[in-house]
């Protein structure tokens, strides 16, 4: 049976083919030609979607950042910095829910390769910059904005670490609990 | 005049030679043989001190981690998690003061190379793990310990970003102020 050869379905098949091949034979040993072949597209199509071997594992980064910065831009006036950052993570919860089925496979692959770990760190840094910038447009000075963005990332990691990966409501509640815990940590200083 | 050829002075000269050469001709274009030659030692001596081209830029990581985890281990009973982390950063202030003269040159070189950026990120991750582990030995459960370690890192970045790089007292005060700011951020949630 012929399969569709381009657009979103091809992109999704390339992502899945890359996860499979990187998992089976390792990131370094896998070529874009092999990924394309398993996805049933040409290598040329691969490169229409992704610039290199790494990016196929980081699809959705732009959507995540756009979703989160839009949530900050559209927030009601007067929300304090960390509340804005948590609003941004809250807006991204559906994306985390959608991404969860492959998140662990993806994380295991990233862990195996310094080049992929660097890309993952760069993604975190890009998100911190984007959130810092979005807070800046809300009048929050840069050092405070950066502190709020980094604190928010720690809160999100804490909340999502306890998440079962199933419902958005649970993840949202866990982020709120993590923020409460940060509040306790940050105020019980001697 | 003959210069000492081994031990701590050689190590210090290798660090300086690497900073010079990486700055002058780039990290990728520089060989360990060139670094050794400029430091007046053999390449064999280079490899007695550093396992590869990257590590010469990350000397002192072990001392930093040992200093910080020792500060947590020796803290009075009853200090809450973030206070323990800030005590650890406080204990490391003399190391930051000592490292400051080369910190900017070093940071500029790291920025130019994905391999060095990965190494720097790995260093941050190693520190987070070490602090999380040290808090664990004080009875703090892992998710809370990790949140405190990450929050502490954000606080330190915030404080050191405003530092003029000169006195330890200033850096210590800036870390305290940054912790206060995190406390405000984390409690002004709606």
Explain the layout of strands and helices:
Two copies of one chain form a homodimer.
Chain A: H1 7-25, H2 32-39, H3 43-49, H4 61-73, H5 81-112, H6 114-137, H7 142-161, H8 168-187
Helix pairs in contact in A: 1-2, 2-3, 4-5, 4-6, 5-6, 5-7, 5-8, 6-7, 7-8
How would you describe what is shown here?
2 copies of one chain form a homodimer. With 190 residues, chain A is mainly alpha-helical. Chain A has 2 domains: 7-55, Arc Repressor Mutant, subunit A; 60-187, Tetracycline Repressor, domain 2 (Orthogonal Bundle). Helices cover 75% and strands 0% of the residues of chain A. Chain A has helices spanning 7-25, 32-39, 43-49, 61-73, 81-112, 114-137, 142-161, 168-187. The longest helix of chain A has 32 residues, at 81-112. Chain A is elongated and about 55 Å long. Mean pLDDT of chain A is 92; it is low at 1-5. At the A-B interface, helix 5, helix 6, helix 7 and helix 8 of A face helix 5, helix 6, helix 7 and helix 8 of B.
Q: Would you state the CATH class of the largest domain in chain A?
A: Mainly Alpha
| Cα radius of gyration of chain A in angstroms | 19 Å
Largest interface: A-B, 37 and 37 residues
CATH architecture of the largest domain in chain A: Orthogonal Bundle
Q: How many domains of chain A?
A: 2
Could you tell me how far the N terminus lies from the C terminus of chain A, measured between alpha carbons in angstroms? 69 Å
Q: How large a portion of the residues of chain A is in β-strands, by DSSP E? A: under 5%
Any low-confidence stretches of chain A, pLDDT <50, length ≥5?
A: 1-5
CATH superfamily of the largest domain in chain A: Tetracycline Repressor, domain 2
DSSP strand count of chain A: 0
Shape of chain A: elongated
Structural class of chain A: mainly alpha
Number of contiguous helices of chain A: 8
Q: Biggest β-sheet of chain A: count, sense, barrel?
A: none
Mean pLDDT of chain A: 92
Succession of helices and strands of chain A: HHHHHHHH
Oligomeric grouping of the chains: homodimer
What is the third-level CATH name, the topology of the largest domain in chain A? Tetracycline Repressor, domain 2
Helix content of chain A: over 70%
Organism (chains A, B): Actinacidiphila reveromycinica
Keywords (chains A, B): DNA-binding, Transcription, Transcription regulation
Pfam family, one (chains A, B): TetR_N
Protein name (chains A, B): Putative TetR family transcriptional regulator
